[in-house]
Amino acid sequence: MIFGKDSALMLLLIMALAAGSASAQNQTPANVGPPVTWTDPLTGLMWPLRDNGTRIGRNEAGDYCAALRLGGYSDWRLPTIDELQGIYDPALSVPSEGYGVQHVKGSLQLSGWEWSSTPDNGDAWHFAFFLGERFSHQDGVSDQGRAICVRRPGKS
After folding, report:
1. String of b and e for 39-57 (b: at least 16 CB within 10 Å)?
2. Dihedral pair phi/psi, residue 89, rounded to 5°
């Protein structure tokens, strides 16, 4: 079959477009899949969508956050008690295993009460989202808390 000059150019253009489309289909964007974090629009703080899911002591909670690699970030830390209380919202009810509901923004999945990095005269503060209250336990003694981590976007 013989093509004219215009037909040959059109055929080359179609082949180039098809090749580009095929290679784009074989590429996987970095943000494919469900989200793993939530950013509080009021504070700009980024939170994982779930806590560590098991009982942990406060020191281990801090270590857990320092070692967390999530969403392409490695600068996670244990939040302060004020940061924890900042995501409490009594008007919201998120189902929780073992605690009925947690009153927390961002639909975060919390499985207990959450440790903070804030000390309290040898004790450590934690926040109970199912009650909306701060408590303190003797630092290093209780292993009943959970670890929810936080990071401030823009830091490395």
Report:
1. eeeeeebbbbbebbeeebb
2. -145, 110
Summarised one tens digit per residue, pLDDT across range 34-65 is: 899 999 999 999 999 999 999 999 999 999 99
Confidence bin at 120 (pLDDT 50/70/90): confident
Q: How far apart are the first and last CA of the chain?
A: 61
Task: Give residue 141's pLDDT.
Answer: 61
Give the mean model confidence (pLDDT) for residues 100-104: 94
Cα dihedral value 27, 29, 34, 37, nearest 10: 150
31: exposed, middle or buried (Cβ count in 10 Å: 0-12, 13-18, 19+): exposed
Task: Report domain extents, the chain.
Answer: 37-138
